[in-house]
Amino acid sequence: MMNTSRIQEVFLKDKDIAWEILEPGIQRKIIAYDKHLMMVRLSFESGKMGPLHNHPHSQITQVESGVFEVTIGDQQQQLTTGDAFYIPSNEMHGVKCLEEGILLDVFSPAREDFIK
Q1: How many distinct structural domains can be found in the chain?
Q2: By residue range, what is the domain housing residue 81?
Q3: 86: in domain
Q4: What stretches of 20-57 adopt beta strand conformation (E)?
Q5: The pTM is what?
């Protein structure tokens, strides 16, 4: 069972949240969550990939920096700083980082599989 919340404060400071290394060149910060909603920041070095996968959560992602090739279902687009994309529940999706950057993911409900 998931811890019900990681929101202990009203204000969350990025500098106070540690990066988790997922693999060389890809890091993640779980910014905040409750059982209904989660925000996650991902840092990618150029050439790294988030392989095609799906999950039951709805997802909205904003490109905070960098350039990414984004695949959702059978569609593919190159997105850059300020662009965003929506992934419906159970839709196959993945990214390839073309220029080092950061993605900001929002999930509903929270990703229990991300919580340790």
Answers
A1: 1
A2: 27-110
A3: yes
A4: 20-23, 26-33, 38-44, 49-53
A5: 0.91
